[in-house]
Amino acid sequence: MTTGFDTYIRSRISLDDAAIEQIVSAAKAISLQRNETLLQQGQICRHKVFIVKGLLRIYGIGADGSEHILHFAPENNWAVDPQSYHQQSPSQFTIATVERSEVLLWAKPDFDRLLQEIPELNMLSGQLVASSHFNNRQRLFTTLSSTPEEKYEDFVRSYPDLLARLPLHMIAAYLGISLKTLTRLRHAQVRR
Amino acid sequence: MTTGFDTYIRSRISLDDAAIEQIVSAAKAISLQRNETLLQQGQICRHKVFIVKGLLRIYGIGADGSEHILHFAPENNWAVDPQSYHQQSPSQFTIATVERSEVLLWAKPDFDRLLQEIPELNMLSGQLVASSHFNNRQRLFTTLSSTPEEKYEDFVRSYPDLLARLPLHMIAAYLGISLKTLTRLRHAQVRR
DNA sequence: GGAAAATGTGGTCATTTGACCATAATTCAA
DNA sequence: TTGAATTATGGTCAAATGACCACATTTTCC
């Protein structure tokens, strides 16, 4: 069965069919409902998660109980809390679905074994760490320096595809502004 | 001569004296005035910089021309724009001193050669990438979720030593609030 | 298909924040 | 040491934002 994972992995590292089969068969495939939690804040991130289909979000809870989203992870991406995963320490963040999703899970011991047996797999981790998606520097700068309107425009430019799949309140939780402010500035833009 | 760099490097990787001497002699030692620019936004980050003494800041310029600080780098830390350095592409950020500082510089080709000749050096890069100082996730979350007052308290808790060395307007530029707001909340805290 | 939940928009109001300006205090550098 | 630059604080005001609420619409899921 082709899961999309095959395509993903072949496009980044060259492996023979046997190796890929080995990797895939070490994973557990899971179907998730909308708004289902995969990793609860305070728990240890014990799996690597690859999103075959659907959309996940990684968020933290503020002091006032509100949700602040750090990442969206759509299909053909990974969702982990790297710190919690690598140190097997409690995570400060929660990972949950936005839509119904299909994911592949590798328990850490299993994935570690794969890394030993298929050294090329290490390339992936390196790429991931270096990738902008896991480097929040640019995002931090935008958050520090931009007005709500600029943040929104930036988001639309960066993730036009996500725009249609996300309720507005999640976009607001991602941008760090209130739903009210987001509605307001969208309305203002229409007029121009 | 002991520069503090010796101590730093010995505490993370074990190298013999010859190797350390080789590393140090590949560096150029520089003294910098207060508020002197090492890397200008738009330029390519051609060096690795180690701060022996003093304090640097890494910042970006917002659309309105204001300064937004991503990091402070005090003695015994590195200051680079990783992206610009590794890809030798123009940096979006500026690196400048806060105080008079003494730094060690390695031109990228020289450092690359060192990495080949002294493989243990690679460990350092790995540690750096993994270190919280270069992982902006926690910082991003605080910026998204906290009030100005909470951000300031968080800063005081995290970097009590820097507090005395930084003008308030730079702390404001780091927290993403105005100098006015910072003064106000400090004054309010005194009253309690 | 239909009930229940989630979502988007609007109104109002209080509060927070920033912009601008002046001034005193402090620090810097020659 | 002294003049110049930087820094900290305060006043005032306008604008932006969030909190709270209601309501219409859409979507979800059994």
TrEMBL record, chains A, B:
Q: Which domain of life is it from?
A: Bacteria
Q: Which Pfam families match?
A: cNMP_binding
Where do the Cyclic nucleotide-binding domain residues begin and end? Answer: 14-115
Cross-referenced SMART domains: cNMP (SM00100)
Q: What is this protein called?
A: Crp/Fnr family transcriptional regulator
What is the source species?
A: Niastella soli
Lineage summary: Bacteria, Pseudomonadati, Bacteroidota, Chitinophagia, Chitinophagales
